[in-house]
Predict the structure.
Amino acid sequence: MTGPVGILLRTILLGVVTGSVYALASTGLVLTYKASGVLNFGYGAVAMFTAFVHWQLAAGWGLPVWLSAMIVVLVVAPLLGLLLDTHLFSRIQSQPMVIAVIATVGLTVLLQGIVFLVWGAESHRVPSMFPRAAVPLPGGAAIGADQVAIFVVAAGAAGLLAAMFRFTRLGVSFRAVVDNRPVAGLMGIDTGRVSGVAWALGTSFAALTGILLTPETLLDPNFLPFLVISNVLGAAIVGYLRSLPLAYAGGLLVGILQSIIIQYGRPQGFLVNLKDAVPFLIVVGAVLAAPKALRLAGLGASFVVRTREVAGAASPRARAPVATAVFGGLALVPLLAAGSPSWVISVTRGMVMGIVFLSLVILTGYSGQISLGHTAFMGISAFTAAHLAADLGVPVGIAAVAGALAAVPAGAAIGAIAVRLHGLFLALMTLGLAYVAQTMFFDNTSISRGLSGFPLPRPPGTSGDRPFFYIVLLALAAAALLASNLRTGRTGRVLAAMRDSETASRALGINVFKYKVVIFALSALMAGAGAILASMQTGTIGQRDFYPFLSLFLVTIAVVGGIFHVGGAIVSGMLFGLYPQVFGNVEIMGRLQYLLFGMGATLALARNPEGLFGELRRAGVALLAATARRRRPRAGPVPVAGGRE
Amino acid sequence: MNALEAREITVRFGGLVAVSDATVEVPATGFTGLIGPNGAGKTTLFNVVGGFLAPERGRVLLGGRDVTRTAPAGRAKLGLGRTFQRLELFGRMSVFDNLLVAAEAGASRLGLAADLLNLPVRRSEERRCARIALDMLDSLDLGWARDRRASDLPVGTARILELGRALCRNPSMLLLDEPSSGLDSAETEVLAGLLRRINAERGVSILLVEHDMDLVMDVCRDIYVLDFGRMIARGAPAQVKADPAVRAAYLGEEDDAAPAAPAGS
Ligand SMILES: Nc1ncnc2c1ncn2[C@@H]1O[C@H](COP(=O)(O)OP(=O)(O)O)[C@@H](O)[C@H]1O
Ligand SMILES: [Mg+2]
């Protein structure tokens, strides 16, 4: 019989084992961050991708498991890391942090897209390298030999890294770069080479993480990236992404806390949900407790997006006809597509998402803030509306308005926090809140009623797809008008000013706090309204409808469509809504979706921050100029429509 | 009454005492100078006065009112304006919008809802504030740069724009942190003329931190000298120039050990 002491001992040891894997991953993440300046939100996706390669070699092609692991960790992963460094991240190093963050988010989408394409979306059981014999512990409990082996391998890899730092010449340059990259560069150290090696090492660690974790957890292309990245961010934040030993300790901390919660919290569902929230509770706590200077420096990350554009934007004279044409064209869709209702449905979906993308445009495009947690606002609104309508019998229209408003306090609260958090901290914090919202609330079936979802009917008289189309069109037009007013007016100027220099804004008497609260609240309101309309369209809301990954995917598409302009949000919405319509019958294209958007965001980002909308506008302006020239051949230089440049 | 008083200010960064028991009194009109070698604590003192830095000890009074615990925005509303040693323009905005946003911060009565809903009052308020910004463009001869991106401006123009931006807020007390740094001598000349004009026309009191001694001695009647965080001298230009403590402070900074020539920044 196992006594309580034995159980405690085993619980802690199991926590140390899992923790040491997170610790390994967290060390790899921080190492890469410090050497290259890029915090890889796609780290979990890298672990998932390499684990799939390992699974293919070992389970698919029958290589011995250990040999496959060696090949993946020592050959495939380092090459992948080098590739990422040379072809992607070294190119965006000089870009502001928001670009790098979104690029790594795009990397997640991209790697998932490749996995879906090659291996499909099913999960797999990955064979373990180690024997499963039981090792007895004092106190009567026992622990698997494979657990011991996992700990040894994970700790060994970290130990090798420490030895490399200490005893090799490369290690010396490494330490210099990790301590202070700019200074190391001045001292003549080849920072590019160090960054390449760091990416190779970090990716190796990610691969080993995946290989050690997947015999325990399933190799699930949807779930694994987030399991890894959430736990790893929680671990890495313990040292504020600065210290490798603290990052390692953070991994152990996360592992032990989770193990304790699993062991002792089992009877209560709430506590088990808490386990998944642990890393992000650590993130939120650490971020709020960070020293002020660190917080305001945003981990040294500048967060202003550079574009060639002056914030003043196109003249109202150019904007009005374009807006009229776009919304007029949309209004005609149900008439033109009378024969194919699926088009009406897809365009409706696109417009609904357009409202959500507008919420990102006003937040990131106008005011330079980032949120990787918009699904939290969306879920709060949608579930509130559904509960009001279903449980309290509130009329649907009123429930919808109240639901959208329910996101406002949440948004305002994040805005108030954003006053104290800059750069990466804000990205981490918002992502953390999306996870906390998911695991603590949306996964709580008394709130979400589970995967099958609970109904949210459309307002009376709009149950048909056509009437609903026009409701959505009106909502989108209202949101677009609001966003446009926001941009061109005093509030937009204040937000642009704050984005460029908060210090100078304060010195002019601008209430930075108020405006951050306002912009986050407005953005949450729009996201919430979009989410409610989206749920009305499908008719139900499920527990996983606002999964945090959606936040990342939305930011990615928002960038592809164009995150600086109202028009960009509409382009993004249409990309989102029409993609399945256009490619619905082509299975391969469905699988390519993530890949294409991931590539679009990561690769195009460095070249054209204004996205597809920027391209469209440039083409439109060129076309106008060309026609005008043809009409009046000798009229001299033609004023360009919306001419800013 | 004095426009500004900073009384017995002490600021510590870790072990370093950046400002130690320093007092400055600035009258409601005219120029007051604040000089001292590099690292003496001048910018730190400005940050305390502006509310960007809480002093360990000491009090700040604006127009006789204790603002030691007031946030920077609140002090701006009480009439305090400033420029920055390291330029803090709104780089991605146009020159005109830099001025407009400042004018609106001071003069606009437009509420948030009226702005977002684009109510008629928005247009009239915008016109009113645009007038202020346009007048400022004219009076600073910046009309040619109106639609330029602020980050694209040469440093001389950028400094003038920052000054104009502060003036659009219509301050009664203006802190200028090394406005001539990065300017050549011709530009400095223009700047000096501009400062005098502003001072005369707008009746704004100016506290000037400058490394260009000719400029300071030229415009200021009253000069404070800070060294290693301590106020080591105060007086009229000639008096300060002759002060042995001041000469000693500038020793090692300058060949001829006197604040008669530019003391580097
Ligand atoms: N935020 C800070 N943290 C630590 N030390 C600082 C900080 N700001 C200024 N200092 C130090 O305080 C001293 C005074 O600096 P500063 O006020 O900028 O001098 P000045 O403007 O007279 O050249 C310097 O030694 C400087 O290094
Ligand atoms: Mg200074």
In short: The mean pLDDT of chain B is 89. Chain B touches chain A through 42 residues (CB under 8 Å).
